[in-house]
Design a protein that fits this description.
The protein is mainly beta and 272 residues long. The chain has three domains: 18-71, YefM-like fold (3-Layer(aba) Sandwich), CATH 3.40.1620; 78-110, no CATH class; 133-269, no CATH class. It is 8% helix and 42% strand. It has three helices and 17 strands. Strands 9, 10, 11, 12, 13, 14, 15, 16 and 17 form a nine-stranded antiparallel sheet that branches. It has a four-stranded mixed sheet with strand order 1-2-3-4. Strands 5, 6, 7 and 8 form a four-stranded mixed sheet that branches. A hairpin with a 4-residue loop joins β7 and β8. The radius of gyration is 37 Å and the shape is rod-shaped. The protein starts with 17 loop residues before the first helix and ends with a strand.
């Protein structure tokens, strides 16, 4: 069969040639309709390159590329019938309506047990955008100006504490117990915080966090004031201190003895 020749304008009274006019300009350039591919092969014989056909059994339009019939725009199959189900990629030819992820125009609903909405440090500049969420554990350590303090890591203590990060805020929970000491004195640091604190702002207005820890069963007296845990900007550790009317004073590690505990409950701010 000759290939289609493009477009031709017929004038009134023109005599059409069955082969060069009717076949080439009309029949070869219409979209023929067939029940299925077998009927098309039997009825069409040798198709011309660029010829179109419609198959009723698959509701698809195909074009002959000179070697084979190819679906126009690809042939996609939709599966699933959940109302408002989000469409996801199934395979190269299928789209799936998810039954456990729906959106009705106002509310995104996820119902798959064990799943969730994952936001992994997207670092959005939009102040109204929640761009990070994470849950995990952190291993609290203790260092002091001199001497040593050992954290009990045996079961059930383990030395692990919990954290939840929502946006820039890090929420801490848990407790550690000291199993041994060796002449500790001077300042006391709690190390191993899961994220570095923010350096934005000045002093306690924005870049310092207070009130995250409580010390229990101490060998010494920490009055006057109250025991506190201070995270200075740009650090992944904090200092134990005594808060009083004259401001925070470095805590003496000598207050700690074997069996002392520090419990964490509070939150601090990081940069991202």
């Amino acid at each position: 069969m000759p290939a289609p020749a493009g477009f031709k304008t017929f004038v009134a009274g023109a005599v059409l040639s069955a082969t060069s006019d009717v076949q080439v300009y009309l029949m070869d350039q219409v979209c023929t309709v067939w029940n299925d591919a077998s009927a098309r092969t039997s009825g069409l014989g040798s198709p011309a390159e660029g010829q179109l056909s419609y198959l009723k059994d698959t509701d698809s339009v195909e074009v002959y590329d000179g070697a084979s019939w190819t679906a126009v725009g690809g042939s996609f199959t939709w599966t699933g019938s959940t109302a408002n189900g989000l469409a996801t990629y199934g395979t190269s030819t299928t789209v799936v309506a998810e039954s456990t992820a729906t959106y009705d125009g106002t509310t995104l609903t996820l119902t798959q047990s064990g799943g969730g909405l994952k936001m992994d440090g997207l670092d959005s500049a939009d102040p109204n955008c929640l761009d990070d969420y994470e849950e995990g554990t952190w291993e609290a350590g203790i260092t002091c100006q001199s001497g040593t303090i050992t954290v009990d890591t045996s079961a059930p203590e383990t030395g692990l504490c919990r954290y939840t990060k929502i946006g820039r805020e890090v929420f801490l929970g848990g407790a550690i117990t000291m199993s041994a000491i060796s002449s500790p004195s001077g300042w006391l640091r709690v190390t191993g915080l899961p994220f570095t604190s923010t350096t934005a702002g000045t002093f306690e207005q924005t870049d310092r966090s207070f009130g995250l820890a409580t010390a229990m069963d101490l060998s010494g007296n920490v009055d006057p004031g109250t025991t506190d845990f201070i995270i200075y900007g740009g650090n992944a550790f904090g200092y134990m201190a005594t808060m009083g009317t004259t401001g925070p004073n470095a805590w003496d590690a000598g207050f700690i003895d074997a069996g002392s505990s520090i419990a964490f409950r509070g939150h601090y701010t990081c940069d991202t």
